[in-house]
Design goal:
single chain, about 475 residues, Isopropylmalate Dehydrogenase, Rossmann fold, Alpha-Beta Plaits, 6-stranded antiparallel β-sheet, elongated, binds nicotinamide-adenine-dinucleotide
Length: about 475
């Protein structure tokens, strides 16, 4: 019976074919047991008019092998093309993006020689849902959606990853001092799950100071778990300060599918010249080998790569700290790694991947164990488009439309309360939030519809409404500043 693992490979665009060829040659020489299916993605596919850059039949291969080694692609500018990465992540449910950012001092120049950070980024939620609207002449919105199961999944993955990889600490980066509900639920779930991992330390940073510390003193961090947008930003900062974006690989992990790639793009200006650094894709392929259970081959390739770097055999993009090294092209770099298969690094720690008892990648998220909470409708925020109006006069006329059960409690503009009261200095847009909230008992949807009917009949442009709910008596909505 074949023990080969089927994988899907895409050569991509720009430097993609060169670095993929180099990587696969190394994997082959190392004895990786792979059955490779090749698919076409990227620029040529986009230019054939396929908006997400992937042929429909390529999904068959991805769904068959469930393991994707992907070279970078070029996304044509303009023309409404969709990001292939975003499509692939969402279509295959790749909820965790894992990016190790490690410095290789003294061989590769870096201001942070002891840096060894892994960023675990939530990959599917947050502002990346792509739900955006223009509501008034002046105002545009993007919905930030965070789910409790999404938080549970990514946080548990981060702790499982830490345990499997002998990491000591998981740090959470969010902004829950401002976004008390969305980032707040991530923090709450983090505290709940952290208690289940007493062997792993945990701490929490507000994203702004956390990012500043990461850029200044990255060696103080071990594993960082964060939401999609924050993770997108800090993982590029971390890779850059580690030494080179050409060096980092990344994995995107889901329940049943996974994707591995270099973090850099297709570098079209250096394509076809045999000068690109294949290291990011080589290290991504090491992550893939660990994921598919070929731990010995992963160690063999990783150690040979570390020895190559130690021996000063570098591609042109690497800033050396030693002058004894040798600059090589893509092909020769791959040959140098192949020549060192079986050798161990002398200065860097030797890699020795072992199957985990319960690998983080096999962790199957369970549905939230939360008991369903009692949900009561308490009121409504009505958003109105109106330009050139004073808050006091808007408030006074809307107040006449309230009912006993749904009194107008306040109006805010861009989150600042402007009625009742408010300061003349507050600059108002044409986008007003008018809150009608029951003081004590729940209300029906019909009462809210009647209120809306009165508002619309009075000539107001209602651009949207948000119902206000209590969950077990606790408000499920923010107040105003
Ligand atoms: P890029 O990462 O391709 O290049 C940035 C700089 O780094 C360039 O100077 C490039 O020459 C250099 N560089 C990148 N990888 C290198 C390597 N392996 N060896 C040596 N030097 C390397 O980013 P970009 O220029 O912003 O984007 C180019 C194209 O890549 C765009 O079409 C973009 O959409 C695409 N892109 C694709 C992915 C992906 O497929 N995952 C990711 C990012 C960008």
């Amino acid at each position: 019976m074949s023990t080969r693992t089927p994988i899907t490979v895409a050569y991509g665009d720009g430097i993609g074919p060169e670095i993929m060829e180099a990587t696969l040659r190394i994997l082959n020489a190392a004895g990786a047991q792979l059955d490779i299916e090749t698919i076409e993605i990227g620029e040529k596919v986009y230019l054939r008019g396929i908006k997400d850059g992937i042929e429909p039949k390529a999904w068959d291969s991805l769904l068959r092998t469930r393991v994707f080694l992907k070279a970078p692609i070029t996304t044509p500018q303009g023309g409404g093309y969709k990001s292939l990465n975003v499509t692939t992540r969402k279509a295959l449910g790749l909820y965790a993006n894992v990016r190790p950012c490690i410095s290789y001092a003294p061989y590769i120049a870096t201001a942070h020689p002891k840096m060894d950070v892994v960023i675990v980024r939530e990959n599917e939620e947050d502002l990346y849902a792509g739900i955006e609207h223009r509501q008034t002449q002046e105002v545009y919105q993007c919905l930030k959606l965070i789910t409790r199961p999404g938080c549970e999944r990514i946080i548990r993955y981060a702790f499982e990853y830490a345990r499997e990889n002998n990491r000591k600490r998981v740090s959470l980066f969010v902004k829950d001092n401002i976004m008390k509900m969305t980032d707040g639920i991530m923090h709450k779930v983090f505290d709940e799950i952290a208690r289940q991992y007493p062997d792993i330390e945990n701490d929490h940073y507000i994203i702004d100071i956390g990012a500043a510390r990461l850029a200044d003193t990255p060696e103080m961090f071990d594993v960082i778990v964060t939401l999609n947008l924050y993770g997108d930003i800090i993982s590029d900062i971390a890779a850059q300060i580690a030494g080179s974006v050409g060096l980092a690989g990344t994995s995107n992990i889901g329940n049943s599918c996974s994707m591995f790639e270099a973090i850099h793009g297709s570098a079209p200006t250096i394509a076809g010249q045999d000068i690109a650094n294949p290291s990011g894709l080589i290290l991504a392929s090491v992550m893939m080998l660990v994921h598919i259970g070929q731990h010995d081959i992963a160690s063999l390739v990783h150690n040979a790569w570390l020895k190559t770097i130690e021996d000063g055999v570098h591609t042109a993009d690497i800033k050396d700290t030693h002058n004894f090294g040798k600059k090589v092209g893509t092909h020769e770099f791959a040959n140098s790694v192949i020549d060192r298969l079986g050798q161990k690094p002398l200065v860097f720690a030797e890699m020795n991947y072992k199957p985990a008892e319960a690998p983080a990648s096999s962790y199957v998220p369970v549905a939230s164990i939360q008991v369903e909470q009692f949900k009561e409708l308490m009121g409504v925020d009505v958003f109105i488009d109106l330009a050139k109006v004073r808050p006091q006069s808007l408030g006074d006329s809307l107040k006449e439309l309230e009912s006993k059960d749904l009194p107008l409690t306040f109006i805010s503009n861009r989150g600042i309360k402007v009625y009742p009261g408010g300061l003349a200095e507050t600059v108002c847009s044409d986008h007003w939030r008018v809150r009608f909230l029951s003081p004590d008992k729940s209300v029906s949807h019909h009462e809210i519809l009647k209120l809306l009917q009165r508002i619309v009949d009075s000539g107001y442009d209602v651009i949207k409404t948000e119902n206000l709910y209590h969950f077990d008596g606790q408000p499920g909505f923010s107040g105003s500043h």
